[in-house]
Structures are given as C-alpha cells and as structure tokens.
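Note on ligand handling. Small-molecule inputs were canonicalized before submission; formal charges were left as drawn, and no protonation-state enumeration was performed. Where a ligand contained multiple stereocentres, the stereochemistry in the source SMILES was retained. For magnesium ion, this procedure yielded the string shown in the input block below.
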Amino acid sequence: MDHDAVEIKGLSKHYGGLAALDNLSLDVKAGEILGYLGPNGSGKTTTIRLMLGMIKPTSGSVSIFGYDAQTQKDIVHTALAYVPGEANLWPSLTGIETLHLLSKVHGRVDLKYRKKLIQRFEFDPNRKVRTYSKGNKQKIALIAALASRAELLILDEPTSGLDPLMEQAFREAAVEAKNRGQTIFLSSHILGEVEALCDRIAVLRSGKLVELGTLEQMRHLSSLTIEASFKEHPPEVKHINGVSKVEINGNSLVCQINGPIDELLSVLAKAHPLTLISREPSLEELFLALYGRQTEAK
Ligand SMILES: Nc1ncnc2c1ncn2[C@@H]1O[C@H](COP(=O)(O)OP(=O)(O)OP(=O)(O)O)[C@@H](O)[C@H]1O
Ligand SMILES: [Mg+2]
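Structure output:
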C-alpha cells in the first residue's frame, strides 16, 4: 500500500478557549496496532471524531489511506469500522437485528467469523437491545466491527465494561485482525491490553502528543531504579549525571538513574556492595510517569 493507514498533520480542535487537541501529527502504518493513551480529557475521543469526519478541525488534516477525512468522508467510511466509547444502539431491535444493520453500514462482513465471535463473546443475539447490560451492548458494537473486513478498525476504549474473560476474547480477535492485515487504532486505559497488542504507543496529555514509540523505547526513556546495600555507609552518588531521588537508609541506598549507568556502577562497585538490584519501571510506574509528566515546550 502506498499510503499510511492514517496520516494526521498539525491537527487542532479548539472548543472556545480550550485546545482539546493541539497540533497533533501522527502516522499509523498499514497493518500495525497503534495504542492511543492518555488521561481522561486528554483528547483521544476528539482525535477519533476528527478521523471519522464527525467534527471539523480548527486546523490541520487527517487522511485515511490517502483520502481526506473531511472532504472524502464517504470513501473513508468504506475503509473503516468504528466502536464508540459508549455504544448508542437502537433499543427496540434485537441483538442480531442490530448486527445485520451494522453489517450493512460496514459493508464487507465475514458472516462465518461473526458467528464464531458471537460464541466466543458468549453473546445471546436474540434479546432486545434495551434489555442488554452495558457490557453486552459493548459486545454488539465490538462483534460488528471485528467481523467486518474494513482495512482500519478505530476502537475507542472497546473493552470498557467487559469482564476479564471477554477482554481476553477481544485480545484474540484483535490479533486475528492484525494477522489478516487489518490496521487497528486502539484507544485504551487498560495497560495490559496495550502491552499485549500494540506495536507502537502514542501518549496524549492535555491535547498534546507527549510520547510516541514502542513500549521498549519508552522503558528506555524512563529511569531505572537501583538498590544497593553495603557493609558500611553507602558512597556519595548525588553528583553523578542522571542520578536522582537518592535515599539512604542505614547502609542501604536506593536511587533512580536516567541514561548511561556506567559511572554510577563503578562508584557503587568501588564501595564493595553486598547486594545490588536494578529494575525497570513496571508498566504502571511507566504510565504514571508519562501521564504526570509536564509537557515540555519543544
Ligand atoms: N463538544 C465539546 N464541547 C466542549 N468541550 C469538549 C467537547 N468535546 C470534548 N470537549 C473537551 O475536550 C477535551 C478532550 O476530550 P476527549 O473526549 O477527547 O478526551 P478523552 O481523551 O477521550 O477522555 P476519556 O479518557 O475520558 O474518554 C476535554 O477537556 C473535553 O471536556
Ligand atoms: Mg474518550
């Protein structure tokens, strides 16, 4: 394919004085799963609405497989399937009627696979939509999108409201979609899901893109925690480049290090440590740091 699945250029959306989205540029490659993360209100759904042409940007543009999301909406919509954060469905249709209707919207649908998904999500398609629980309503939208052969799946927190078993069913189906060559734009608050599925991750904060890359790259950007214990008082490490949050407790030392660790290690080694542990941030620590980080004006 000549075009990226999604090309977002200088995209902004202002509501009065509020920049819900501020000068976002981001590409999603065909065939990848991109995780789209950020705290509540950081602009994820706004980005998705702009991708779908549901709202007009204040400036900038989105193109989907080379077509403009605003001016070529009809062509764009044939290439994608969408799961909104809260599925707004027709209360008096049954589940299966809703699936039929959504399959007309999505065009190419794999009916055999849809049947498999209905079983896998343990979904009873014969009840009226108004009688479904929140999670079951979410399943309808999800099954409809996953059963489509749309090149691009745009999923806005697709597993909110699903129990862990169903979350697992979603992960399997997302991998199958990727193996089929479909591209997935996945907004999510579930870190384990993002870690398991996403090729790259974009992190938004207050409408601005603050990180873009693989999880591994992000882990490297953040600090390692070093813990060491000694026979006597620990050596002085505060002056070393990249060292922060030094805590000394009796004969043990804990600190964070950002960047090369050689100098710190040689200072610690000269003091003959009894124990030495280095650990990477957990996924939670990493994202708390990313979500909390001040946006640098760059
Ligand atoms: N129609 C609107 N009018 C005014 N402000 C809006 C409108 N839609 C969104 N906003 C504001 O834009 C900002 C971004 O909202 P958005 O829904 O994109 O966040 P989000 O990242 O999807 O959050 P969440 O994780 O809670 O779903 C918020 O401050 C929100 O209040
Ligand atoms: Mg949202």
